[in-house]
Design brief:
Blueprint: E1 5-7, E2 13-15, E3 19-24, H1 30-41, E4 48-53, H2 64-78, H3 83-93, H4 101-114, E5 118-123, H5 130-150, E6 155-162, H6 165-170, E7 175-178, H7 185-203, H8 207-221, H9 240-252, H10 257-263
Parallel strand pairs: 3-6, 3-7, 4-5, 5-6
Antiparallel strand pairs: 1-2
């Protein structure tokens, strides 16, 4: 890949083809996506893979130090040749629990030098505070530049997050992949039909009726306005799987056909994830 460079928002030169940004809407299953990417990346033998799942409100999962610890731990666990470097760093610095940002940064940089090729995946960057996002982006952009200047193609970094303005601006020159509900529409449709089959068994509904229910729930889950919805309730994009789960769980709990019909009325089906 061509090593195009661009100046980032925070003054760090970004090697565009080394930094990737995948954006999704809220609750669109970004962590599921991250897990799948991690699983597939780990199957590529020539790559060392490090990853981290950020979590809002959890100090152990929403700081730069937490990301450093997590990524280093994953790299070392899968690459035994890194153990001596970690032990030496701990013995030399006395930082046995990796509580120093400097030690963490230096150790990660050393691990990246030892490994021939590395892929780093950070999920939920948007769940960190803005100052922390800035630190994380700045660090990994610098590491990507240094490693790929020395050995082209040796480091790739993927950030997965919702489309926040500050992240979008600071990674404006990164390769961006925008994921929409339609990208996993068929999988979610199968998920919805599995739930609908349970309802059909409970209430002896026709196949046509089940398809109507699936279609209506899918429209709302995908954020598409439905003809059954009044203008005031037309939706923006929803948390697709979570919305389906909550709606179908409620429908499955209805004991009588009359109760089910009531819950399926246009003014009763949730008009958003908060209502579900």
């Amino acid at each position: 890949m061509a090593q195009r460079k661009a100046r980032g928002r925070y003054g760090t030169t970004i090697v565009a083809s080394a930094i990737f940004r995948a954006t999704t809407n809220v609750f669109l299953g970004k962590t599921v996506l991250a897990s799948y990417i991690i699983e597939q990346a780990c199957k590529v033998p020539e790559f060392g893979v490090g990853w981290f799942y950020c979590k809002f409100g959890n100090s152990d999962k929403s700081t730069l130090l937490a990301v450093l610890r997590g990524v280093i731990a994953q790299l070392v666990k899968a690459n035994l040749q890194l153990y001596p470097h970690v032990l030496e760093a701990k013995n030399t610095t006395g930082d046995l629990k990796l509580i120093s940002h400097k030690v963490g940064k230096d150790l990660l940089a050393e691990c990246l030098q030892v490994l021939e090729k590395t892929c780093i995946i950070i999920d939920g960057l948007d769940e960190c505070d803005k100052d922390v996002r800035r630190e994380i982006i700045s660090l990994f952009a610098r590491l990507a530049k240094e490693r790929n200047d020395a050995v082209p193609g040796s480091l790739r970094v993927l950030f997965i997050s919702t489309d926040e303005a500050d992240i979008r601006k600071s990674l404006s020159k990164a390769v961006c992949i925008t994921l929409k509900g339609s990208d996993n529409f068929s999988e979610m449709q199968d998920y919805a039909r599995t739930w609908a089959k349970r309802i059909q068994d409970l209430h002896t509904l026709t196949d046509q009726k089940i398809e109507e229910i699936v279609s209506e729930v899918m429209k709302r889950a995908d954020g598409k306005p439905s003809a059954l919805l009044p203008t005031s309730l037309k939706l923006t994009s929803l948390g697709m799987y979570l919305y389906c789960y909550l709606v179908f769980s409620n429908l499955s709990d209805q004991l009588t056909l009359a109760d089910l019909d009531r819950e399926l009325q246009p003014d009763c089906l949730p008009g958003g994830l908060g209502e579900a």
